[in-house]
Amino acid sequence: MIEVKELRRSFGPVIAVDNISFSAKQGDVLGFLGPNGAGKSTAMKMLACFLTPDSGTAAICGHDIIADPIGVKRSLGYLAENAPAYNEMTVAGFLGFVCDARRLKGAARRSAIDRVVPMCSIDSVYHQTIDTLSKGYRRRVGLAQALIHDPAVLILDEPTDGLDPNQKHEVRQLIGRMAQDKCIIISTHILEEVEQICNRSVIIARGKILVDSNPQSLVKEHGCSLTEVFRKITVTKKSA
Q1: Residue 94 and residue 169: Cα distance in Å, rounded?
Q2: Max alpha carbon distance in the chain (Å)?
Q3: I need a labelling partner for 173 at 20 to 30 A (CA). Which of 11, 134, 162, 187 fits?
Q4: Residue 240: its pLDDT value, please?
């Protein structure tokens, strides 16, 4: 469902993403890990067609991010790190706006909203304006807009940021349920989250992929927690 080939992006003299390649299929929950500034968000923005790569390419469900960005966006649900929303809109109005953008009408529109509102536990704030919501509820609304068209591929940048422990647990369970028939990439700094819900872990630093494995294998190979594995890989590789 996701094929990334030699993807590269720089900002002036800084190479943010340096010729990375990987793939992911249906059923994969891929933890995209790295220290701050590693290139994770830049890579995800390119996959979501918000940034154009300098070279290389990628395909989402067979749609090339350069040749067919509309096809990519139809196949993809994207939750950005700082998901934009319109503060003056109610949650209902915002989700209606997203349905308009996704060309969901009539019964399909009603069905989509009826599905994502309870799924993301935003029933109680459905008629509130977004500027009155806590950070956790804003995050849930952002997740709802990513899910509303029931995409085959999800790219979620820090999906549990701002959620309390109970809300984090609920979102992790939701991701686990969706993983059966979707391909999901998650960027997070919460490594226990990766151990709980991811079957793949890609570690990136300074724009390059250092490891592509699974969390359990990494823990077994290094004989320590995933947090310590992460430190060993990113710090050792940096010093080498």
Answers
A1: 25
A2: 58
A3: 134
A4: 44
CA distances from 187 to 22, 41, 155, 202 (A): 15, 8, 8, 10
Residue whose structure tokens are 């953008």: 101
Q: Is the pLDDT of residue 154 over 80?
A: yes
Q: What is the mean pLDDT of residues 20-46?
A: 94
116, 91 contact by CB (below 8 A)? no
pTM for this model (two decimals)? 0.91
Residue 171: phi and psi, rounded to 5, are -65, -40
Give 117's Cβ-side CA count (13 Å radius). 17
Structure tokens at 158: 């820090």
> Which residues lie below 8 Å from residue 166, measured CB to CB, with a gap of 6+?
none
pLDDT at residue 26, rounded to an integer:
94
Report the distance separating Cα 225 and Cα 171, nearest Å: 23
Whether 184 contacts 154, CB under 8 Å: yes
Residue ranges of domains in the chain, CATH in brackets: 2-239 (3.40.50.300)
